[in-house]
Amino acid sequence: MKALLIHLFSIWILLIQFLHLGICGSCNSLSKRCEMRTDKLDKLLCNGGFQKNYLNSTSVHPRIIVICQVMSSSFDPAFISNFPQLYRLSVINSPNISKFTQPFPNHRLQVLNLTRLGLVHLHHNTFEGLINLRTLDLSHNKLKQLDRHIVEHLSQLQQIFLRSNNWDCDPHLKWVLNPLLGKKLMDANQMTCGVSKYKGKPVLAVMSFIKNLRNECPKIDSKSCNCSLDLIVWSPNKDYLVPVTTVNCSRLDLDHFPPSIPSNTTTLLLTGNKISDISPLLTNPKYLDVSDIYLDENQIFNIDKLEGADWLTKFRVFSLKSNKITAFPTFALENGFRKNSQIGKIYFGNNPWICDCTFTPSFKDFIIKYNDLIEDIDDVRCAFSEYDDNSLKIISELSLSSVCGEQGSFLSPLDCLNVLLASLIVFIILKLLYDYWCYKSSGKLPWIITKIP
Ligand SMILES: *[C@@H]1O[C@H](CO)[C@@H](O)[C@H](O)[C@H]1NC(C)=O
Ligand SMILES: *[C@@H]1O[C@H](CO)[C@@H](O)[C@H](O)[C@H]1NC(C)=O
Ligand SMILES: *[C@@H]1O[C@H](CO)[C@@H](O)[C@H](O)[C@H]1NC(C)=O
Ligand SMILES: *[C@@H]1O[C@H](CO)[C@@H](O)[C@H](O)[C@H]1NC(C)=O
Ligand SMILES: *[C@@H]1O[C@H](CO)[C@@H](O)[C@H](O)[C@H]1NC(C)=O
Ligand SMILES: *[C@@H]1O[C@H](CO)[C@@H](O)[C@H](O)[C@H]1NC(C)=O
User: Fold this and answer.
1) Tens digits of per-residue pLDDT, 228-258?
2) Can you tell me where the transmembrane regions are (predicted)?
């Protein structure tokens, strides 16, 4: 009987606790209030903000404070100074809180849970006074950046949670790759970027792409190219990420291709340099996968070498505007083009193209055949020449007779010879007939016969 009573009593206690939790342990109650739980832990639950009437009360010594559903847009953490025994503070489920009005005061707090707020930016000294802090939860906020000093200066910090924020994934965030700091990040694999160009992509992968890119970005004779990660896309099977990278080495006075470029470079800009030799496109395997190459405003005069280059079968954009190219064997490029299914744009404008009867006919056929790829077809013109009527004329509109001469209007030397030979034959036949007639009518032999002995 006694045992039963004790049982019933403990069930009743549990029920009371359960109800108590149901009211105070949830943030869903509508009223704005703080309530103390003194049973197991000294836990203060506040809904709608912290109430100041607890400040002067000497009887309350909470070790845990949970504050939720705060309406205001900023939060003042100074009150924790009044609770020296406090070791865990949660300010949660208040998406209107975007900032703290001041840094946290010096305090021996160990666990700080700031999940599901609307924090956008944290000043680097926000948590500096919390020298005993071991766990910091900043998940489900709107943070774009987190200064590495915040993590570095908290010497006791063991766990930090940062998933579900709007990480901008710019180079400042690369501390997440630091082994010492990174191992404190409990949810690093769930962190994703929030900026549009990397939206939804894992922070760790993006930061390691950025880090590699920085290390590999070419520096040539103290001049640096500008390398940027433009986009990250999933592979067709969604099993790995593919970086879309631009390496801009424009206007650096280079007279050769950079000997090495970052792996996975997609676009290479070499505009406005002094490059004349394009053989790295054939010989340097680093260039094989570069799909867009801009070589405008260089000194290139010869692209014959590209015949048979594997690169021609893979590229997407090839720009050779404003170089010194006069001609090239069109079949050499065509072979590559035929095998290339992703070819997108070609630029050939502002080169001093030769306009003569040997090169121009095949070149004109070539640019007309590929006119939907040659973006600057109206700039593909004959070289400037004072003495040529075709100077600076658009090659795709050039009449071939103007480079090769019009058929029949003028006689070529060979035609003249033919006419001469034909008239000689006619003359000889007529002479033969005349001689025959003379012989028949007068018996006179031609003069030439009388002279032959
Ligand atoms: C707390 O006590 C101080 C003086 O001890 C007083 O100035 C202050 O107004 C009190 N605060 C509240 C909220 O009662
Ligand atoms: C956030 O603030 C708006 C008014 O600015 C208010 O209507 C809303 O209820 C607040 N949300 C929360 C969760 O406090
Ligand atoms: C912070 O609070 C939320 C909501 O109560 C909880 O889900 C989460 O686990 C807490 N974080 C830590 C590190 O305890
Ligand atoms: C590199 O390019 C980016 C964007 O294209 C630009 O913001 C940055 O200033 C450039 N850096 C240098 C060193 O030119
Ligand atoms: C280049 O991309 C491949 C996947 O396409 C990846 O495995 C590799 O790590 C990348 N290299 C660098 C340096 O980012
Ligand atoms: C490449 O760099 C040059 C010179 O720094 C700059 O003028 C140009 O706008 C850049 N191009 C791109 C696409 O970033």
Assistant:
1) 999 999 999 999 999 999 999 999 999 999 9
2) none
pLDDT in tens, 86-139: 999 999 999 999 999 999 999 999 999 999 999 999 999 999 999 999 999 999
CB atoms within 10 A of CB 57: 10
**Ligand 6, atom 7: nearest CA belongs to which residue?**
250
Residues having CB closer than 6 A to ligand 2 are: 69, 71, 95-96
Residue nearest to atom 12 of ligand 5 (CA): 263
212 ligand 5 Cβ < 6 A: yes
CA 335–ligand 5 middle distance (angstroms) = 30
CB-based contacts of 182: which residues, under 8 Å, 6+ apart? 175, 176, 188
pLDDT score of 22: 40
Question: 0.85 cut: is pTM over it?
Answer: no
Q: Is 106 left (phi over 0), alpha (psi -120 to 50) or beta?
A: beta
* Contact status, residue 338 vs residue 366, Cβ threshold 8 Å: no
Q: In the 8-state DSSP scheme, what is residue 140? A: S
